[in-house]
Amino acid sequence: MKNLHEAILLLLYCWTGGVRGVNSRPGRIVNGHEAHEGEFPYQISLRRQMIHICGASVLEDSWALTAAHCVEGYEEEPKLFTLRLGSIQRSSGGSILEVRNIYRHPMYDPEDMNFDLALLRTAANAVRSVPNVSPIRLPEASELVPENTEAIVSGWGHMSTDEQILSPVLKYTTVMTVNQEKCQADLSEHGGITDAMFCAAARNTDACQGDSGGPISVNETLIGIVSWGVGCADPYYPGVYTRLSYPPIRRWIRLMTKL
Questions:
Q1: Kindly report the CA angle at 225 between 59 and 143, in degrees rounded to 5?
Q2: Coil, strand, or helix at residue 126?
């Protein structure tokens, strides 16, 4: 996967950090649906200097989870980041919490996007007082999600494939998990995937820029994090997600949060 992510990192630093993948075309949760108030109570808008850059998920009263590439280079500057919780509106409603600490997974590799996850810590018990917010369950280590399983991905990504305009309202769509060997074959020319990743896809719908770091869930379990892809809703390439049940990932989350 070397060379694969030079385009990601260029876009990441030139824009806002919400890049979903290599050669990503601007796009929202492509052909998704608008969420209703109270849906996705674990969904977070991660903001840098008050601007939405990525999604994130509520894990516990003082912890959230996002993609490592969303905070890369800013680990020592957590005060630049805030979280909007408890609202489906990107720029209003809910509550704003400050990020106190940023912890990237120690094995994160920006060259191939392996171990693309980071934990965000807020003030103790800060999430507990926010209405319409609740944590999402994490999978156990090695917990399997069979191929062709329906999964929900959500975010405030770009509004169209031609304009870099973020969606004002949270959107979501349904994708299907993809056989690991098939995904490896489909993405082999772009470096392939690792055991810390899995793929999901659906015809004409996908996550994209601005959705990075956000949740993909099955039956109210957070199985992954939006990480990277080739384009958006490209019929030939599935989207790639960080696999949260991968033992080195799940053990690290538990070590850091005791969850």
A1: 75
A2: helix
Question: CA-CA distances (angstroms) from residue 40 to 57, 58, 124, 205?
Answer: 9, 10, 22, 19
- Does 61 participate in catalysis according to the annotation? no
Domain boundaries, the chain: 18-34+137-245, 43-135+248-257
Architecture per CATH, domain 18-34+137-245, reads as Beta Barrel (2.40)
- Point out the catalytic residue in the list 24, 45, 87, 212: 212
Active site (annotated) includes residue 57: no
How many C-beta atoms surround the C-beta of residue 92 within 10 A? 9
- Rg (C-alpha) for the chain, rounded Å, is 16
Backbone CA torsion sign across 103, 3, 231, 49: positive
- Which positions ≥6 away from 154 have C-beta within 8 Å? 29, 32, 35, 40, 43, 55, 170, 171, 172, 173, 211, 214, 215
Hey, what CATH topology would domain 43-135+248-257 get?
Answer: Thrombin, subunit H (2.40.10)
CA angle 109, 114, 118 (to 5 degrees): 80
Q: What is the pLDDT of residues 12-46, one digit of tens each?
A: 333 333 444 443 332 335 557 899 999 999 999 99
Q: Are 99 and 119 in contact (CB under 8 A)?
A: no
User: How would residue 209 be classed by pLDDT, with cut points 50, 70 and 90?
Assistant: low
Q: Is 116 among the residues known to form the active site?
A: yes
**Per annotation, catalytic residue among 112, 116, 206, 211:** 116
